[in-house]
Amino acid sequence: MKTSGKAKWMLIISMAIFGTLGPFVRNINVSSGELALYRALLATVLIGAFISITKQKISLKDVGKQIPLLLISGIAMGFNWILLFEAYKYTTVSVATLSYYFAPVIVTVVCPIIFKEKMGAKQWICFGMSTLGIVLITGIGDLGQGSSHFIGILFGLGAACLYATVILLNKFIKKVDGIYRTLFQFIAAIIVLVPYVALTGGVTLNGLDTKGWISLLLVGIVHTGITYCMYFSSLKEMPGQKAAILSYIDPLVAVAVSVVVLGESMSVWQAIGGALILGFTLWNEISVKK
Question: What are the pLDDT digits (tens) for 176-187?
Fold first, then answer.
């Protein structure tokens, strides 16, 4: 019971930390691609150290068979971060995060095509209502939002598509534990992000002030490295459905940080849209697991 309770709190804390990512990203004055690269680098070092200290073992033979999928999913993860960071620049943290959380809906729609699964009435309702939520978040009820806000939502939805790609590819990756899978995906992201950054502006760390450096270290070490270690350690001892429910702490904290800490406005229509997305994707998650 103690172990289960510890795992639960580790998951809650990791989700809450994920939800505070937005404000720190905004303090880092580098390109989104460069930030994604540094995040992957710092997290890879920390997760590698964690695996070494805890003396976890893995069969390199099993990993070798999965290299193509790990590479593709790692590339998707890296560019998923880039689009999410761009979304933070164009719209509020809350709207960017809620747009990003459309990923489970995308997975629900694509799974019947790839895995020949059937979508029941509940899944179609969840898809329709979550889509309505995205429409409301665009500000259809508030005409003064502007093009920048809409571009931010498009970046958020693009990030959601790539994150959904990572989720779907992970279904095909067998015999590789979650934390190892993430480590190899981070390495794959680094491999593709290094040339991408070199071709799109290069390294600009000399332009960071003290706040920027602190935020960069926190994003790489705390928000990614430490939090991923906590996240995967807790998943081993948590039932899947409980973990799915607790994962919604992330967007709820992000919305709270956006409104309360950053003072970003959120209209009634956007709040309703966010509630539709989170509520119906959660309902769908519970029904699928059950």
Answer: 777 788 888 889
